[in-house]
Amino acid sequence: MKTGELIKKYRKLRKMTQKQLAAACGQTDSAIRNYELGNRTPGEPQLQAIAKALDISSETLRDVPLESSRQALELLFRLDEEFGLEPMEVDGMLVLGFDTRAEKSPKLAAVLKAWKKMLDSENAGEITPEELDGWKAEFGS
Q1: 96 φ, ψ to 5°?
Q2: pLDDT digits (tens, 9 = 90+) for 70-90
Q3: Which of 26, 8, 9 lies closest to 18, judged by CA?
């Protein structure tokens, strides 16, 4: 998703109007509307202010280009370099794992366990998909 689409998604998740978000982050409702429509892209200070107003991590609003399998593969390559992520075959199924000896892998393991716990909670009906989205947006903020 593009930054504007993400702003709109999380604004609606917070049940805010464009005018309310604008007031909360010190911008105009016209600026918020233009961000959401993709007519303008917020700069770093604006993005930080919007994220703070939405009570989410600013990383949640950043555009991560994943429009092709090549872009996804590049992201996986970078995760491999940073965290030791690697493809594995387990019982005939292709899965992603990581090298526990990699410097940053313990932190990655902790967040993956937290994510799995939340997915299990959603699957068990203990939380809604919207609550899962909210958790994802707030994680690490």
Answers
A1: -105, 130
A2: 999 999 998 888 888 889 999
A3: 8
For 92-134, how does the pLDDT look when each residue is reduced to its tens digit (9 = 90+)? 999 998 887 888 888 888 888 999 999 999 999 999 998 998 8
3-state DSSP of the chain: CCHHHHHHHHHHHCCCCHHHHHHHHCCCHHHHHHHHHCCCCCCHHHHHHHHHHHCCCHHHHCCCCCCCHHHHHHHHHHHHHHHCEEEEEECCEEEEEECCCCCCHHHHHHHHHHHHHHHHHHHCCCCCHHHHHHHHHHCCC
Residue owning tokens 């998740």: 13
Residue 89, amino acid: E
What pTM did the predictor assign?
A: 0.73
